[in-house]
Structures
1.
Amino acid sequence: MAIRRDDFPLPDVDDPLTAPYFSGAARGELMITRCDACDRFVWYPDERCAQCGGELTWTPVSGDATLFSWAVVRRAFLPAFAERVPFVTALVAIDEDPAVRIPTYLVDAEPESLRADEPVRVTFRPLSFPTVPDKSVIVPMFERTR
Amino acid sequence: MPDWGHASDFDDVRGQFAIAGIGETAYTKASGRTAREIGIEAAERAIADAGLEPTDIDGLTWSGAFPDFDVAAFREHFGTTHDMWTSPWGGGMAWAATAPYLAARAIRDGKATHVLNVFPVAWATQRSSMTGGPGEVHATQSLKQNLEVPFGWFPQPVYFATIMRRHMLEFGTTEEQFGAVAVSCRRHANLHPGAVMHDKKMSLDDYRAAVMLADPLRLFDSCLISDGGAAYVTTTTERARDLPQPPAVVLGVSEGFSDTGGHWAQQRAFTSTPQVFSAPRAFTMAGLTPSDVDVLTVYDPFTVVSLMQIEDMGFCPKGEVGAFVEGDTLHHDAGKLPFNTHGGLLSHAYVLGIAHVVECVKQLRGTAPAQVPNCEVAVYGGYTGHMASTLVLAQDR
């Protein structure tokens, strides 16, 4: 069952289920799936809306969010993270619908000063790992707004 | 009732079925054994404990998620050819609680008489070849692989560190309160000769000094990685009375689900478990309340999962579990709620809940190493993310 993709743990930008998330990031847009029929944001992306069965469309959102929760990762659980620890990985809740939580990095964050539900804003940054030479992917990360 | 989940409608099986035999292997660090070998040994011992022969076992529940021990393995090892009713919706985790219900249905429908449930695991042995250890099964899922892993939100210790943080933010739960759970479990493991951590003492200071894996989650908030397995035999209470061991009677059983998906990041009730939906059903079937429970075991991969289930099952009001678990509340001898009296996944062994059910049966028989005095009612709370389950067992009366 081991992961066979050579560029793991970079995201697979060709995976049809999530590709628009990364193509959006590359052009500076935070994209979230929304149901055409009931208008709800549906996250994570899925084949259909779990509530009403409607079709989902990738939709740009503002990139404004709040800090729902976070962890300061100190142990590298994968070799790719060995040089990155310690880092702050977070769940941020988008302003358009706080039920939509995005796993992301908080950049330049002093862990001790973080506050629950404080405002954060998207920033699009290249993600790379020393275990995946010569490759990077632009991804949505978040930064504090105060 | 909150609107983020639901419970299954289980038939009332109160009092009619019982666990008549239990079997355990050694619980160890890397043993070099395969899960199949471990499963066979657990099965042999459970069948013997029940006073039965392999040919008496005409039903088998096992784990479709971890298919190491199934009917083919049973037949090959025991050399049997008789028909067997079977279901892959048994084994460990949440299904360690509901396997007796599957057995009850099969027995009631005349498809089986004695149903064996088996769960083995050999992750300690397999660990070095897994991507992110037990996180591997998650890393292979496309959504997690693309939306979580690249962002360092992986594996399980990170999910639960994030849940733990939110529990602290919402309810004021403190590190010492999480520590109280870990220390109580270790105390029980120290009394249990079969526990992996039997010889290792741990104080609250030791807990605080432990390495931080993903702040606020420390090493000792986290379960072990172990080899081992267990099995048990379910039959009718009437039949169980003819067998050598005192029956552990199934009074209530239930399962509940979150409707907000299988991903931890997207659980609407982020600091709750589906015990909110499951536990009331099992207690209703049993005709009991949480205050009737003499010993509670819950699936405890991380301390926060114990705290959430204790409050979601109704042992204290939501949000107040931190204060509830302080001091000796969870101790087997003096506590208000004797809890994971074998040491749990944290300090006994990480065999995914099957040993929790075995511990409940031992407590009811009066043969547990950390025996709770006059234990008449023992409950197991199972958990696997968007699912929780509840099994209420009692002495035969």
2.
Amino acid sequence: MESGNQSSVLSDLLVTHTIGNHLHDSTKWCRFLSIVGIVFLSIFVIAAIIGGPSIVRLVADLFPGLEDAIGNLIIIIMILLIAVSGVLLFLLFRFSILTRRGLELRNQALFNDGLKALKFYFIIYGVIGILGVLVNIAGLFSL
Amino acid sequence: MENQIQQEDLFDVEIDATAKSLISDIATWAKIVAVSAFVGYAISLVAAVLGKNELGSGFAATTSKATEITGTLINVIIGAIINIFLFRFAVEAKRGIDHIDQERLESGFNNLRIYYKILGVFIIIILAIFVFVLLAVVMGGGIPG
């Protein structure tokens, strides 16, 4: 019975040492990327808080009569940009930590949670990619 | 002995039904990311070649256009090299999951590793350039002129 279970496990997909090592390396680089990203995002947020009002005023001055609308639009775009980047970096960091811990502690639930974080990361990234292509196509037709 | 080696070669983590479904979804969305990047690069190349030159015509305009196309081309080549690995991860991992092919899955995760490694090295290079420029500015500002 035991040997039957073992053979059924061996006939299915497994996290072999090769896959484990590839994932371990991936999580190492992901952690580095997410930490660097979080540091730069924090610097961007501080810069936006300090220099934001003057930038908004400068840009708004270019559109007389629409100062308030343009100012609000810039603030909304900035908040959206910071929020989406923050979520992406958080998911990448979560993937790196949970998958690594799942492999090290041999914990299936942690491993799957790490993969779930990577899935949401790629879903958000994919939606941004599709939107980017649509914007690019629109830009191409305006040439 | 053989069984022992096989057991030692495995983490106690399985690719269970949940993990399979997650990897399959990750591969699908990774493919969307890679393909949209390729399409974006193609569009930016077309835009660089066909786009109007604000400087009009003449030597300055031609030089500016050539610089723009070269810049876009470098950008596209670097981006395409990075995204090829993401695309290969998506294709191999999906095939590995669908056909229960361990080797394909391993190859897929190897491509994911290379993708993140290239991104990491790229960020290190950008950070090094950033620090170099910052130092140059600080030292340049310190020289009395």
